[in-house]
């Protein structure tokens, strides 16, 4: 068999997950029966089925029983948001596994292949390994990170405004893009906003226009300015709400009142270091993927600190204008164009009369 050619096809499939699966690796898989490709699959979105079960399910729909699976990256051997793929391959009676690259995660490297070998599965590994690792996207960088993956999302007009000069922002984008924003919420561990957004908009940050669970909420609120009558505080008993505050910048009674309502407060030395705070959040909560829907101040701070790993921009078909109307990124910003970050755009698509862009700022890289 020409495994290289089959892996080239699997690589094409893997790239379809770009912008949807990160920080997980982009992975593609083929299911073969008697040397014939009878199923195709890829990791389509974070938290969703991996490439191997997707390919096997595709074959099952066609009434076929694959004996071989070709996959760009070593099958997972542990249960997380999805079951272990090694267990599935063994249970489905797969006789041969052709693997493009071994999992670079030192916690799992080669473990899945060894499990399959012990179960009697023939394993052919390291075919087109360099290409397969490159196609996995920012996964290698993610392995070096101690904090969650941060996606910055904003909706803006054609002239780059996120609100009018008076702060009005409903609705800049059409319903199709707002539904996409809700779907994105359902595919992250938590949504991050600043205290200004909570004060101005009193958001719920729930999933209403799509299917999926409500995310946890993370609020950067150094002085615990959040009012006890905010919707996020009232709903804290039913979902996780965490505030990031500065030690000594708030009254102890305010913290006690919030915690009594189910809000968790994490305090840090002043001034609040967002990078350190996010590392602590990951250590305590295990959150891997966070969506920032904050205003320009918070998004700009993340940008200045190099903490925006991915951006999702929803562009509405309208003009706002006004020199006082805010843009999506505040903060300090660079002084010269040579200091600006290029964005590797992996998706640019029309949606409901607007546009959706997904990309990776230069320091993060998508390769």
Which of globular, elongated, flat, extended, rod-shaped describes the shape? Answer: globular
* Share of residues in strands: 15-25%
Proper CATH architecture of the largest domain: 3-Layer(aba) Sandwich
Order of helices and strands: HEEHEHEHEHHEHEHEHEHEHEHEEE
| Stretches with pLDDT under 50, minimum 5 residues | none
SSE class:
alpha/beta
The helix content, as a percent range, equals 25-40%
Oligomer: single chain
What Rg is obtained from the alpha carbons, in whole angstroms?
23 Å
CATH superfamily of the largest domain: Dihydrofolate Reductase, subunit A
Total number of helices: 12
* E-strand count: 14
Overview of the molecule:
The chain has 367 residues and is α/β, with parallel strands linked by helices. It has 2 domains: 3-137, Cytidine Deaminase, domain 2, CATH 3.40.140; 149-361, Dihydrofolate Reductase, subunit A. Helices cover 28% and strands 23% of the residues. It contains 12 helices and 14 strands. The strands form 2 sheets. A 9-stranded mixed β-sheet has the order 10-9-8-7-11-6-12-14-13. The longest helix is centred in the first third of the chain and has 12 residues, at 3-14. It is globular.
């Amino acid at each position: 068999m020409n495994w290289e050619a089959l892996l080239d096809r699997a690589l094409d499939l893997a790239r379809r997950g770009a912008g949807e699966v990160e920080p997980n690796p982009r992975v593609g898989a083929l299911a073969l029966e008697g040397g014939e490709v009878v199923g195709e699959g890829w990791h389509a979105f974070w938290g969703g089925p991996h490439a191997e079960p997707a390919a096997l399910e595709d074959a099952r729909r066609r009434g076929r029983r694959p004996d071989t699976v070709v996959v760009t990256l070593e099958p997972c051997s542990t249960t997380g948001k999805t079951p272990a793929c090694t267990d599935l391959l063994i249970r489905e009676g797969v006789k041969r596994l052709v693997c493009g690259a071994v999992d670079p995660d030192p916690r799992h490297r080669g473990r899945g292949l060894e499990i399959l070998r012990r179960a009697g599965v023939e394993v052919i590994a390291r075919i087109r390994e360099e290409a397969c690792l490159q196609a996995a996207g920012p996964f290698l960088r993610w392995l070096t990170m101690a904090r969650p993956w941060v996606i910055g999302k904003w909706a803006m007009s054609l002239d780059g405004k996120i609100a009018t000069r008076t702060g009005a922002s409903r609705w800049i984008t059409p319903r199709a893009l707002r539904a996409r924003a809700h779907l994105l919420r359902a595919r992250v561990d938590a949504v991050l906003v600043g205290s200004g957004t909570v004060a101005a908009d009193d958001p719920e940050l729930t999933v209403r226009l799509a299917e999926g669970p409500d995310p946890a909420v993370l609020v950067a609120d150094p002085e615990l300015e959040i009012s006890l009558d905010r919707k996020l505080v009232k709903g804290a008993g039913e979902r996780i709400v965490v505030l990031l505050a500065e030690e000594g910048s708030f009254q102890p009674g305010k913290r006690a009142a919030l915690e009594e309502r189910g809000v968790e407060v994490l305090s840090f030395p002043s001034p609040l270091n967002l990078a350190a705070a996010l590392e602590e959040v990951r250590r305590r909560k295990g959150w891997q993927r966070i969506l920032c829907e904050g205003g320009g101040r918070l998004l700009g701070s993340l940008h200045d600190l190099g903490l925006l790993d991915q951006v999702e921009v929803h562009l509405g078909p309208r003009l706002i204008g006004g020199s006082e109307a805010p843009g999506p990124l505040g903060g300090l910003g660079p002084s010269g164009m040579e200091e600006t970050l290029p964005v590797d755009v992996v998706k640019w698509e029309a949606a409901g009369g607007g546009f959706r862009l997904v990309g990776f700022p230069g320091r993060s890289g998508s390769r």
